């Protein structure tokens, strides 16, 4: 996957995760960071469940699910 597509997916996934969990985004760099880490977590989780996404939208869904998991873990650690 190209770097630009990877960053776009990360940005969109981070923004969506912020909307789903907090109600606002984390800025461009924050969204990209959360989305990129989330894509690894989501990919790992989906592989454990036997799921695979090959499309652009599927990659965004995978990264968003991973980013939501990441934000949930971070909030548990903060509490």
UniProtKB/TrEMBL annotation:
Principal location: membrane
Pfam families in the cross-refs: Transgly_assoc
Keywords annotated in UniProt: Cell membrane, Membrane, Transmembrane, Transmembrane helix
Domain of life: Bacteria
InterPro entries registered for this protein in UniProt: Transgly_assoc
Gene Ontology cellular component list: plasma membrane
Subcellular location: Cell membrane
The keyword Cell inner membrane belongs to this UniProt entry's keyword annotation: no
Recorded topology in the membrane: Multi-pass membrane protein
Transmembrane stretches, start-end: 28-49, 56-74
PANTHER family per record: UPF0410 PROTEIN YMGE
Record family assignment: Belongs to the UPF0410 family.
Protein name: Transglycosylase-associated protein
Organism of derivation: Psychromonas ingrahamii (strain DSM 17664 / CCUG 51855 / 37)
């Amino acid at each position: 996957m190209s770097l630009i597509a990877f960053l776009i997916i990360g940005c969109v996934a981070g923004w969506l995760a912020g909307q789903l969990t907090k109600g606002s985004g984390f800025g461009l760099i924050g969204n990209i960071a959360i989305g990129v880490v989330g894509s690894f977590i989501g990919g790992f989780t989906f592989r454990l469940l036997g799921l695979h996404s090959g499309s652009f939208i599927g990659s965004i869904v995978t990264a968003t699910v991973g980013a939501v998991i990441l934000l949930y873990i971070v909030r548990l650690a903060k509490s």
